[in-house]
Structure formats: C-alpha cells, structure tokens
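Input.
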Amino acid sequence: DSHNDVKFIAAQGPFGAVVNDFVRMLWEQKVEKVVMLTNLIEEGKPKCDKYWPDSGNTAFGEITVKLKDTQILADYVIRKIELEKSDAPTQSLTHYHFTSWPDQGVPVTPWALVDFEQRVDINSSTAPVVVHCSAGVGRTGTFIALHNILSQAKETGSVDFYKTLVKLREDRFLMIQTP
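Output.
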C-alpha cells in the first residue's frame, strides 16, 4: 500500500529540557511538516512547551527557530518556520496546529479534522512528518489512522479499520487508547 510509504514520527509534546532535543530532531530529520494536535494548556494543565516564537527568533540549543508567517483559521493555525544552525543551510518547515480537539475528547466538528488532514497534504512530504499531541498516542494515533484510512479509501475504495489499528499498535504501544 502506498499510504504505508509515508513516514511518521509520532511524538509526545516536548517539555522542559526535552524541547531542545525535539527541535534538534526536527533539524536532524529535515522535517518539512509538524502536526500539533494539542494546545499548550488544556483544562488548566500544561500539555506541551512552546518550541516556536510568537515573532522573531528563539534559540533552542544550537538551533534558532524563526517564525516567518502565521495564518489563523477557525480550527487550526498554520505557521511557516525556519530552523537555522551556524555553518548549515536554513531549513524550512510548516507547523500545522489543530486547536479544536480536547484531550480525551473528540474534535469540535469531525469535518474540521478531515479538512485539516487534507490541508496538511502529508503525501507531498519527502521527509518524515512529525505528529504530536500531549502523550503521543491518543490524538496522534487517531490522526495517523485517519490519514491511512483516507489513503486506503482513495486507493482501493475500501478500508480496514482493524488492520490499520493493529499496525499502528505494532509500531507504537498504546496507540489510540480505548476505554
């Protein structure tokens, strides 16, 4: 299946000292797209530290993150970001931040998530696509499953939810929690 050719890096939202490692991973993997499925704070609890500036530049270890553009839409925000490291070419990435999906909940409207997945256009990426929520298994797994299922439907006209879930759980334990 060609949808399995897409490489995802499923991650938890970075906190504290891990933020520098997270940004370094974006650099080392030459990531072109980051999908963020959590807000920084949800129900008064921190879920993820911010790894981009509101404007200008912020250094994370040896890498400087520069915000180039922000587009705010109803259910998500799209940021154009550059990563800079001395003596190396600048790398560009697009940060897709879905803001309408509470932890342990469902998106405000399911069609907003489908629209978001199509906007991200994962298949156009030559580098791994980083997907993260807070813990890196619930919303992250659901988004990756949605991508795989939509790709299956487009390619074959049918979907296998069970096979998709089993494959995700083989790749990452606890992917998509169930009650």
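The chain has four helices and nine strands.
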